[in-house]
Amino acid sequence: MRAFQPKIHIFASRVLTEWAIDLLSLPRARRFIWLKEFREIKDKSSAINHDTGVSCDLAKMIMKWYRPGQKMAIGNPQYKEIIQRGLSVPCLFDEIVMEVMWGLKNLMHVLVPQEKMKLSKDDYLPMSQRMNMLLNRYGLDVKPEMVTDSIIKLACLLLDCEYCDVKISRHLRLTGEYIEELSGIKCED
């Protein structure tokens, strides 16, 4: 088992609330996530468990990077309780964190090059709800068992198109109005 603690830096709440899918593509993910430390843990059950809490080694790593006022995003509700109880570190586990962790899991091999684990078909499940909503907006009915790297790339491309549309559509309309004013040529949407 391998452990890492990404530092998730959030530019406005947009990233985690509406566009957790940003973490599906490496260039976007690197804007928000930096690898702070990597440690190989051979026996996960000795690193963190309900009875013994957090191991000394893992506790040192967590406390090294924790800053007062921060909340640590945890991808497992049991781990959240163990860390909060044993280290008094506020943790966050909810649907948005699950979306982020799904994206991290799918980029693990790139974000943590030392990580050699390959994702199985089950690792793609459950499907990111944000990605599912995005694909459904375009009439793409993708079942969780159909998710592959190609589907994830498709979702990223669709998201890029939406960003471009939002970013430049107002400017294009204003330009169209200006062209119509100057030349009388109507520019329709």
Describe the structure.
With about 190 residues, the chain is an alpha+beta fold. It has 2 domains: about 130 residues, no CATH class; about 40 residues, no CATH class. It is about 50% helix and about 10% strand. It contains 8 helices and 6 strands; from the N terminus they run βααβαββαβαβααα. The strands form 3 sheets. It has a two-stranded antiparallel sheet. Strands 3-4 form a two-stranded antiparallel ribbon. α5 links the parallel β5 and β6. The protein is elongated. About 20% of the residues are buried. The N terminus is likely disordered. One of its GO terms (cellular component) is small-subunit processome. One of its GO terms (molecular function) is snoRNA binding. InterPro entries: Nop56/Nop58 (IPR045056).
Give the secondary structure arrangement, pairings included.
Elements: E1 2-8, H1 14-17, H2 26-32, E2 33-40, H3 44-47, E3 48-49, E4 53-54, H4 56-65, E5 72-73, H5 77-87, E6 91-92, H6 95-111, H7 129-137, H8 149-183
Parallel strand pairs: 5-6
Antiparallel strand pairs: 1-2, 3-4
Shape: elongated
The proportion of strand residues reads 5-15%
What is the structural class?
A: alpha+beta
Radius of gyration: 21 Å
Tally of structural domains: 2
InterPro entries: Nop56/Nop58
GO molecular function: snoRNA binding
